[in-house]
Amino acid sequence: MKVTLERAALLKSLAHVHRVVERRTTIPILSNVLLRAASGGLRLQATDLDLEVVETSAADVTEPGSTTVPAHTFYDIVRKLPDGAQVVLEQTGETGTLVIRSGRSRFTLQTLTEADFPDLATGEMPVRFELPASDLKRLIEKTQFAISTEETRYYLNGIYLHTMEVEGVQALRAVATDGHRLARVELPAPEGSAGMPGVIVPRKTVAEVMRLFEAPDGVVVIELSATKMRFSMGDVVLTSKLIDGTFPDYARVIPLHNEKRLTISKADFVSAVDRVSTISSERGRAVKLAVTEGKLVLSVTNPDSGSATEEIEVEYSADPLDIGFNSRYLLDIAAQIDTDTALLKLNDPGSPTLIQDMEGASALYVLMPMRV
């Protein structure tokens, strides 16, 4: 194998694929990136057996061939080469090494045979549809923060993606919850997605999709089966296993009869919560909301450090209510509100609260209260 390519092109592709590779693994081949040189360019492939990223870089291929080299070492070498440099990758015969040359620099890396490298992308994926990258990013951004990190409830360690009929129209819906808060966002179902199986996309996959498909004007091709999902855009292909579990019936926790409506300035609310929570304990993080007509008083009491209160004007005309929330969860949800005002639908101090941009918004959030 002999390939010549721009350092910038190689670094861009390596930056995408090497992140998948775990730094500590008991299977040596999984520490490596697969390099495959052919007439179409240099194809780089990496996997951790749950997630696989493939990207092709434009390259001058003198001799086709393939091998695997340690991913993180290879990335560090290319990263430290000077801008604008040409990189030559060469493997001759069965030497077991790959020579990397650039200017006066020369590196030799140990290789492992391509035959042992696993291929995650095999198997039928009967469902196929296209989604603008901006829409895919919105589905993830609005729900990612609510993904559970509790490994024992593994079926909550991802985003539940499914289609369903909403007021006579098919919608593609993304849901995430950690048991304390829930995020749900939907958009019109793209052509070809109707009847897709409900799938749980793992947390690591979600993070990689956000990094890989950043171009807002691009279109992502999504293919999936009941066990795997593939995202493709341009020269990048990401294939992932899905979480094998049943997502809970989230509709049961979305309150339908919260009649107490609190309309609030998002900026004022975020600033007030942020200020008073300075006093809260790291473990508790509780902030109390005392709502009366036209007024909201936020307060925090910490026996170890003191107390804080702040008052802001709101639109509220129902019965007075005192309710407590985790301040960090409040701020996480407030960060997802797109409008200048937020609508909170309340019931009583022990019931979940519904938070939206406005009535009928495509994204909604549910937050469980705390005792204060």
UniProtKB/TrEMBL annotation:
Function of the molecule: Confers DNA tethering and processivity to DNA polymerases and other proteins. Acts as a clamp, forming a ring around DNA (a reaction catalyzed by the clamp-loading complex) which diffuses in an ATP-independent manner freely and bidirectionally along dsDNA. Initially characterized for its ability to contact the catalytic subunit of DNA polymerase III (Pol III), a complex, multichain enzyme responsible for most of the replicative synthesis in bacteria; Pol III exhibits 3'-5' exonuclease proofreading activity.
Keywords linked to the UniProt accession: Cytoplasm, DNA replication, DNA-binding, DNA-directed DNA polymerase, Nucleotidyltransferase, Transferase
Residue span, DNA polymerase III beta sliding clamp C-terminal domain: 252-371
Protein name, entry field: Beta sliding clamp
Ranges where the DNA polymerase III beta sliding clamp N-terminal domain occurs: 1-120
SMART domains according to UniProt: POL3Bc (SM00480)
Taxonomic source organism: Terrihabitans rhizophilus
GO molecular-function terms, A-Z: DNA-directed DNA polymerase activity
Subunit structure and binding partners: Forms a ring-shaped head-to-tail homodimer around DNA.
Pfam assignment, any one: DNA_pol3_beta_2
Domain called DNA polymerase III beta sliding clamp central: residue spans: 131-249
Principal location: cytoplasm
Subcellular location, record wording: Cytoplasm
Domain of life (superkingdom): Bacteria
